[in-house]
Write a structure and sequence with these properties.
The protein is of the alpha+beta class. The longest helix has 19 residues, at 321-339. β9 and β10 form a beta hairpin. The strands form eight sheets. Strands 5, 6, 7, 8, 9, 10, 11, 14 and 19 form a nine-stranded antiparallel β-sheet that branches. 47% of the residues are buried. It contains 19 helices and 32 strands. It folds into three domains: 81-310, Pnp Oxidase, Chain A; 321-444, UbiD C-terminal domain-like, CATH 3.40.1670; 456-557, 3-Layer(aba) Sandwich (UbiD C-terminal domain-like), CATH 3.40.1670.10.
Length: 617
């Protein structure tokens, strides 16, 4: 299964793919069909054969746990972490006698067998050369209504470190500008951006080769959070248990896998004026707003005879990237435990929170304040530096059991167990008061709260006093000291005043966590609630410890900050499909699938969209 076409063949055998022969437009329509399939239940991969180009388009290949295991050749996503642990234990085992040293030779042989090889021949991916370079010949998607254009969303972008010649492979979205150029959206911390700055200082043109498809493991490796100068194809070799064969690009000195589907070669001129790229409906569930990025000039496009164009769509979770993120969580847990935080037992990075905004960390809790040591270690580790909310639970709380995690909040004594700090944030984080910076909150739920009392919420009193505030007290009813409120737009500038008004009515007792949201979505929808909670806060500003007559509470303001008095950045809009496309797919669905159309997932989100455009107003 080392090519996209072989993956499709395997999915056909497993009855795990929809083959669509009817025409579907690459402008919004493919997104709408994908979203309905992803979220209605059957969640198969989809091959669009009739999209206005000569290339079939594959989407949602990574969108289930079963397919992710198929791609990784595992029975469980935990298998690879166990392989890493066995390998590291073997490598670090003391060896003083000759036989003990010789016993390590098979391990060295294994490692050598994963190193990529190079071949001098022209590969199948270079068989067909486009006579005239034209990106319009590829089925590049416009994913969402207010996107700035069409975007290549699943590329493996190959760049060279000009100082040591090491290749990096990253995944950066590419907005098509015209037939022969795209933007290259790499963030400040990405290796591609670092290489760009090196070429800029040297005054040199930067060669770039982009590949699409091939072994489906390549796209995963391009997205994996590897340390700088670690070869992504070494990771692919380790995961596949065999080396990746590379061939040289036709127009530059970058080596690429021989079995990819499509190759786009070109260059970036670091001295050229940047391109105003975006907006783009992003994995945060909001539009990432337009900004300046380098321009990639395409000089050659080649492809396999049977090439398939792979793509993905991101947006309000869950999306296809849910299982890419879960695979990363499971694979990198072992090296994280060994190299950075030995006290960690397990972790859960919920997809609803975009993986890094919320981390639930299970620890041994073997010495006082171990949780704070773990928080500090993890916030300094690779992409965990982007985490905003870290909840640390003890060994008897399963971090993947939602009810157990909610129950762990009973342990939290607010004045004892809350930690605040500040650090880097994802460039895409829209809630930080400053670009790419955010506060962070750590919650220690490892030790019993000796003062815990059953929480009380008097709903009749509350409803009489505050008929325009929605609420969900279901956690409180289960003995968990937390309540969610949906507050009106005109009161969102002063959440402390809203809380003070509520407290004056004596409608609640022994509540530790008060979370405010906009009142434009059902608070009982946990996917949306966690997405909003994790995405809409800068903990330094939006999380406050409030002292009352009998206890301390943590007030979390997860409301949108449109026209907010202390928020000066533009607030992005929630991503949802437009009415015209929804109606178009309603009409096409029965023709394509022979059944009535399921409702669009966007319908539930439309109340959250503030206006037309990517910026909420």
């Amino acid at each position: 299964m080392n090519t996209t076409s072989k993956l499709v063949d395997e999915l056909i055998l497993r009855n795990d793919i929809h083959i669509i022969d009817e025409y579907v437009s690459t402008e919004l329509e493919i997104t709408e069909i994908y979203e309905r399939i992803l979220k209605k239940g059957d969640n198969k991969a989809i091959l669009f054969k009739n999209n206005g180009t000569n290339f079939p388009l594959l989407i949602n290949a990574y969108g289930s746990e079963e397919r992710m295991n198929l791609i990784l050749d595992t029975q469980s996503l935990d298998e690879i972490g166990k392989r890493i642990l066995v390998m590291l234990n073997e490598a670090t085992k003391p060896a003083t006698k000759m036989m003990e040293k010789l016993s390590k030779l098979p391990l060295l042989k294994d490692v050598a067998s994963w190193l990529p090889s190079r071949s001098a021949y022209r590969a199948a991916c270079q068989k067909v050369i486009m006579t005239n370079v034209d990106l319009d010949l590829l089925p590049i998607l416009k994913c969402w209504p207010y996107d700035g254009g069409k975007f290549i969303t699943l590329p493996s972008v190959h760049t060279l470190n000009p100082e040591n010649g090491v290749t990096n492979v990253g995944m950066y979205r590419m907005q098509q500008i015209d037939k022969k150029s795209t933007a290259m959206h790499w963030h400040l911390h990405k290796d591609g951006a670092k290489h760009y700055e090196m070429y800029k200082k040297r005054g040199e043109i930067m060669p770039v080769t982009v590949t699409l498809g091939g072994d489906p493991i390549f796209a995963y490796c391009a997205s994996a959070p590897l340390p700088e100068n670690i070869d992504e194809y070494l990771l692919a070799g380790f995961l596949r248990k065999k080396r990746v064969n590379l061939v040289k690009s036709l127009t530059n000195d970058i080596w690429i896998p021989s079995n990819v589907d499509i190759v786009i070669e070109g260059y970036i001129d670091p001295q050229e004026e940047l391109f105003y790229e975006g907006p783009f409906g992003d994995h945060t569930g909001y539009y990432s707003l337009a900004d300046f990025y380098p321009k990639f000039h395409v000089t050659m496009i080649t492809h396999r005879v049977d090439a398939i164009y792979p793509t993905t769509v991101v947006g309000v979770p869950p999306q296809e990237d849910r299982w890419l993120g879960k695979a990363t969580e499971r694979i990198f847990l072992t090296p994280l435990r060994i190299a950075i935080a030995p006290g960690v037992i397990d972790m859960n990075l919920p997809y609803q929170a975009g993986f890094h905004n919320l981390a639930i960390i299970q620890i041994e809790n073997s010495f006082p304040s171990q949780s704070y040591s773990v928080m500090s270690s993890l916030w300094g580790a690779g992409q965990m530096m982007f985490n905003k909310i870290m909840l640390v639970v003890p060994s008897d709380v399963n971090p993947h059991d939602e009810e157990a995690v909610w129950n762990s909040l009973k342990n939290v004594l607010i004045e004892r167990d809350i930690m605040f700090t500040r650090g880097p944030a994802d460039v895409l984080d829209h809630a930080g008061r400053r670009y790419a910076q955010s506060g962070k909150i750590g919650i220690d739920a490892c030790n019993e709260n000796p003062y815990f009392q059953k929480p009380i919420f008097k709903s009749e009193v509350f409803e009489k006093e505050f008929p325009n505030i929605t609420y969900d007290d279901s956690l409180c009813q289960r003995g968990i000291p937390a309540i969610f409120f949906g507050i009106e737009e005109e009161t969102r500038n002063n959440p402390h005043k809203v809380l003070a008004d509520i407290m004056e009515t004596d409608c609640m007792e022994n509540i530790s966590f008060i979370i405010f949201f906009d009142n434009n979505f059902p608070l009982t929808n946990r996917d949306i609630l966690i997405w909003q909670l994790a995405g809409n806060i800068d903990p330094q500003y939006d999380c406050t410890i409030v002292e009352t007559d009998d206890n301390f509470m943590l007030l979390i303001d997860a409301c949108s900050k449109v026209d907010h008095s202390d928020f000066t950045r533009n607030w992005p809009n929630v991503i949802a499909m437009d009415d015209k496309t929804i109606e178009s797919i309603n009409d096409k669905w029965k023709i394509i699938f022979g059944e009535e159309a399921p409702s669009s997932p966007s319908l539930e989100l439309k109340r959250m969209v503030k206006n037309e455009g990517a910026v909420a107003k």
